[in-house]
């Protein structure tokens, strides 16, 4: 009798274990492999918050899609390409993640792309922007909700590029900066403006005196309107350093794209500066952004930032893809996501079929200063719509 009870208990335990395993097998695992620590930590935090909010918003708080629970796994690349590559392989292999999101650094992203192809699983790149991610280094498992360098470049060329304008660039000396300048240079060709000089500096540069001297020397004798256009991410604050060196004595203006709120504090020294931005929480007018601004303010006592919106877009994209297919097979997800339109805090995004780059609006701004606001406010001049930008397909696959 005792033996029968023991046997029944064992069978019951095995059945419960099997049911639990079956239930877990139905979970849809999302790995956020991102630069949680390191020089881009501030961006990474926003991206992570945004991803979670996107999953919550798109599932109406249930974290379930088609009866499957969404499970988020987090891994810290430390901003190092070799670590990012290893951790993505671990997420797809050991953790059996169905899909991955990240990272912040373009250098880390480029190291991770072949891992997605090797494991035949999707990596949504957010927020790394180097063109090569959806260009020469692209494979069919890569999607990107982040804007690319060309989208930044074309929108900023529209904002400041005009006949008779001379521009010199200051950018970080790695994929983000060099791809950004290459795209900006190409985008300027249709504007009548000319790029006269390119300056690249290490990502950890603190003293910009030598760079400024070269930039000013390249521009000071040029006729017409003159700009130093800055492409920079992370610390260093080149704007304040360049401004302190008095470019106005050569009639040189500073220009740049948008940035996170902390970086926009430096823009307060630059009233009237123009450029184009990916996101500023007061600009888009749509229900998704309304929800994001309200919820973020309520939960974190501050408005959502630049990369919060991008993270949210990636979360929404995952849920919308799962809604389109009841399968968690990669090929089915790729088929669902190619050409997919989805609503984000920025409005409509479209994953272009040819390279899986998300096409999206950008915003031409002019900095306004308000004594009650601690950063320079990117005030909307006009929305640059998807159809207003010619974004070339750069992959060679």
UniProtKB/TrEMBL annotation:
Biological process according to GO? amino acid transport
- Give the matching CDD domains: PBP1_SBP-like
**Boundaries of each Leucine-binding protein domain copy?**
29-368
Q: What is the annotated signal peptide range for this record?
A: 1-22
InterPro entries, sorted: BCAA_transport, Leu-bd, Peripla_BP_I
Keyword entries, A-Z: Amino-acid transport, Receptor, Signal, Transport
UniProt xrefs under Pfam families: Peripla_BP_6
The domain of life for this entry's organism is Bacteria
Q: Which family does it belong to?
A: Belongs to the leucine-binding protein family.
Record-linked PANTHER family = LEUCINE-SPECIFIC-BINDING PROTEIN (PTHR30483), PERIPLASMIC BINDING PROTEIN OF ABC TRANSPORTER FOR NATURAL AMINO ACIDS (PTHR30483:SF6)
Q: What is this protein called?
A: Receptor family ligand binding region
- Source organism: Variibacter gotjawalensis
What broad taxonomic lineage does this protein's source fall under? Answer: Bacteria, Pseudomonadati, Pseudomonadota, Alphaproteobacteria, Hyphomicrobiales
């Amino acid at each position: 009798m005792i033996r029968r009870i023991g046997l029944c208990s064992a069978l019951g335990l095995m059945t419960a274990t099997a049911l639990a395993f079956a239930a877990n097998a139905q979970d849809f695992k999302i790995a956020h492999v991102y630069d949680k620590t390191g020089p881009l930590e501030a961006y990474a935090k926003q991206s992570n918050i945004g991803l979670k909010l996107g999953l919550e918003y798109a599932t109406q708080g249930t974290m379930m899609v088609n009866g499957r629970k969404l499970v988020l796994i987090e891994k810290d690349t430390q901003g190092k390409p070799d670590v990012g590559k290893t951790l993505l392989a671990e997420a797809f292999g050991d953790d059996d993640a169905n899909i991955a999101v990240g990272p912040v650094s373009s250098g880390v992203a480029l190291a991770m792309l072949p891992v997605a192809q090797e494991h035949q699983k999707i990596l949504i790149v957010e927020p790394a922007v180097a063109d090569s991610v959806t260009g020469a280094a692209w494979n069919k498992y890569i999607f990107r909700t982040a804007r690319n360098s060309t989208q930044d470049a074309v929108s900023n060329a529209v904002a400041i590029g005009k006949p008779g304008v001379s521009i010199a660039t200051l950018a970080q000396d790695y994929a983000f900066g060099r791809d950004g300048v290459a795209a900006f240079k190409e985008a300027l060709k249709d504007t009548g403006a000319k790029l006269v000089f390119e300056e690249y500096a290490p990502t950890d540069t603190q003293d910009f005196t030598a760079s400024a001297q070269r930039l000013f020397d390249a521009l000071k004798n040029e006729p017409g309107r003159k700009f130093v256009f800055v492409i920079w991410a992370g610390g260093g604050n080149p704007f304040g350093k360049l401004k302190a060196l008095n470019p106005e004595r050569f009639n040189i203006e500073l220009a740049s794209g948008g940035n996170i709120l902390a970086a926009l504090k430096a823009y307060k020294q630059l009233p009237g500066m123009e450029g184009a931005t990916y996101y500023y929480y007061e600009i888009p007018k749509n229900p998704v952004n309304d929800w994001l601004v309200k919820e973020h303010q309520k939960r974190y006592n501050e408005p959502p930032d630049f990369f919060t919106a991008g993270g949210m877009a990636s979360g929404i994209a995952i849920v919308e893809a799962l809604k389109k297919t009841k399968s968690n097979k990669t090929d089915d997800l790729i088929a669902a996501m190619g050409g997919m339109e989805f609503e984000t805090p920025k409005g409509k995004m479209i994953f272009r079929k040819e390279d899986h780059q998300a096409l999206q609006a950008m915003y031409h701004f002019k900095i306004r200063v308000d004594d009650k606001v601690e950063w320079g406010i990117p005030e909307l001049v006009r929305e640059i719509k998807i159809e207003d930008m010619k974004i070339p397909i750069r992959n060679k696959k």
